[in-house]
Amino acid sequence: MKSIKIIAAGLLVMPCAISFLAKAAEAQDWRKQFPKFRYGVQAVETQAAALTRYKGFGAYVKQKLGIELELFLSAEYAGVIQAIGAKQLDVMDMGASGYAAAHVETKGAVEPLVVPTNPDGTIGYYAVAFVRADSPYKSLDDLKGKIWAWVEPNSASGYLFPLVGFRNKGLIPEKHFGKVVFSGGHEQSIIGVLDRAYDGAITWTNDIEKHTRGGLHMMLSRKVLDIKDIRIIWVSEVIPNPVIAVRSDLPAPMKADLKAMFLNMHKDNPEVFREVVRGDSQGYREVKHEVYQIAVDLRNQLAKERRSR
User: Fold this and answer.
1) What is the pLDDT of residue 22?
2) What is the rounded distance in angstroms from the CA atom of residue 54 to the CA atom of residue 217?
3) pLDDT band at 28 (very low <50, low <70, confident <90, very high)
4) What are the extents of the domains in the chain?
5) Taking 80 as the threshold, does the pLDDT of residue 19 lie above it?
6) What distance in Å separates the CA atoms of residue 59 and residue 87, rounded to the nearest whole number?
7) Angstrom distance (rounded) from CA 33 to CA 24
8) What would the pLDDT profile of 134-164 be if each residue is shown by its tens digit?
9) b/e map 67-90, b = 16+ CB within 10 Å
């Protein structure tokens, strides 16, 4: 005879029912343990623009999860990476390189949840090097001895992938350009080129002709940039789209609820969804760590090179 257990209500419950009730209780309890949606985002635009972008997201989180949004906007990727490593954040929206850094620094204590698709359903984008359209520069070779701006050391499109791409074609930035700086953000890089502070810089886009998502799209949609003002002179290989990642130690029911919220956002609230994904998209889809292993490998490669110098 199978064992039975008496619970508070005085009912006799078989083990399978006990398991079901335990899971149901766990699903209810995660909100007590995590009364706020602690969400870290590296602002790839000005902080004011980012705050406007996420204005409706807080109401959406409250509606879907019943908890308040606590948005952590960092001017630097490292801020979000350090915060999730210290368990001050539970969820982060980062590029491939930022996710890779968090995965390495936390020894695998973060994992991908969902990734936004492009309008055609793909999940990749490109780093693009650009100059002013009225400049004489038509290629990276023309920028020899000029001022070049990366975005940030933890940026996938703003540093990691194009750096490796440049090296693969025999261009060593520190030797090729006259001066190399970090602008601090994609918007800062674009404005810096327009204002002639930099001769060339890097940013990102999902489509080198339509720019329906990405750094260029955000500037174009706010009419801060006219695409005719710049010239793209180099395009990277495909980079995995930025990812929504979570701490691995979060309760399984919480991860499931978060995933469902993101996966349904494009249908539940298209306006909020468009702001959060920064442009056009078919919706979020589930994604595994393997998609971002290339970024982890590249970061480890660069770290090994630095140690060997």
Assistant:
1) 47
2) 17
3) low
4) 1-31, 34-120+241-308, 124-239
5) no
6) 24
7) 15
8) 999 999 999 999 999 999 998 999 999 999 9
9) bebbbbbbebbbbbbbbbbeeebb
Q: What is the phi/psi pair of residue 158, to 5°?
A: -90, 0
pTM: 0.81
Say what the pLDDT of residue 44 is. Answer: 67
For the cut 70, the answer to whether the pLDDT of residue 70 exceeds it is yes
Asked whether 246 and 39 are in contact (CB, 8 A), the reply is no
Q: Do domains 34-120+241-308 and 124-239 have the same CATH topology?
A: yes
3-state per-residue secondary structure call for the chain: CCCCEECCCCCEECHHHHHHHHHHHHHHHHHHHCCEEEEEEECCCCHHHHHHHCHHHHHHHHHHHCCEEEEEEECCHHHHHHHHHCCCCCEEEECHHHHHHHHHHCCCCEEEEEEECCCCCCCEEEEEEEEECCCCCCCCHHHCCCEEEECCCCCHHHHHHHHHHHHHCCCCHHHHCCEEEECCCHHHHHHHHHCCCCCEEEEEECCCCCCCEEHHHHHHHCCCCCHHHEEEEEECCCEECCEEEEECCCCHHHHHHHHHHHHHHHHHCHHHHHHHHCECCCCEEECCHHHHHHHHHHHHHHHHHHHHC
Q: 21, 13 in Cβ contact below 8 A?
A: yes
Confidence of residue 48 (pLDDT cuts 50, 70, 90): confident
pLDDT value at 114 more than 50: yes
Distances (CA, A) of 89 to 39, 85, 118, 219: 6, 8, 27, 28
Query: Residue with structure tokens 């399984």?
Result: 252
Q: Identify the CATH number of the domain defined by range 34-120+241-308.
A: 3.40.190.10
* Domain 124-239 CATH superfamily: Periplasmic binding protein-like II (3.40.190.10)
Contact 273, 178 (CB under 8 A): no
